[in-house]
Amino acid sequence: MMMIFGIPAPLLFGQLLLGLINGAFYAMLALGLSIIFGMLNIINFAHGALFMMGAFAAWLLLHYLGIGYFPALILSPILIGAFGVLLERTLISQLYKLDHLYGLLLTFGLALVIEGLFRNFYGSSGMPYDIPNVLQGIVDLGFMYLPIYRAWVVVAALVVCLATWAIIEKTSLGARLRAATENPGMVRAFGVNVPLLITITYGCGVGLAAFAGVLAAPIYSVNPDMGDNFINTVFAIVVIGGMGSIMGSIVTGFGLGVIEGLTKVFYPQGSATVIFLVMVIVLLFMPRGLFGKTA
Fold first, then answer.
1. Which domain holds residue 130?
2. Percent of the chain scored above 90 by pLDDT?
3. Could you give the CA distance from residue 146 to residue 195 in angstroms, rounded to a whole number?
């Protein structure tokens, strides 16, 4: 058996793959959080609950309407994004001129309410969601066996993250979004509907969380607490990358997922805290994060 640094190659590459998978979810969730914070200045603590709702939407579409995985990848983000738009218009929009603490408290309360409602109706035990037939099976790479679905998750997450970055940073729509948050009065003077842009931004950020939830459904059991397993780590990743930094969220999400996976091989006891240790070190030397903008 091939050994690398005294570690069996299948074990090392297997943990690297698990790290990439977790990193894919970290990146998508962190990206949604960064969009919402960067554009709206709202710390969205309900993001984990909305991620869970995306997975539940896919499960409900399959079990009650017979709508499979690939249509759910489109429908679930639209449905949960629409729910996010409703939240933004009715509740969150009232907090834009207030301190960040109010938004954090509101979204934290919303997360508790949403998770409590799903727990009441569906219980705490996980419900399985089958991998679609076309993505089942494994590929023998020689040094490891690669599950096709897990490879799909990494590729899909990377494509969605980079496409989102390109839209925000390289298109006229992204320019309007950035301008609307930095100088809404000027943008309004050019006839742009700023409140609509802000609402769409929040809905898209929520849609990213729901998309990640659908990808996660076949890997993790669909249950009301599945967002809690990610959200604290994702907030740490957003801080490391730089609050509101789109590319920072993508790079640190994937990168720290890999670091976490490799830590499980070389020092398993530290795998649960390595990301938070990195956060402390980064903030000591770069308080605005790796990709944070200077004042």
1. 3-285
2. 42
3. 46
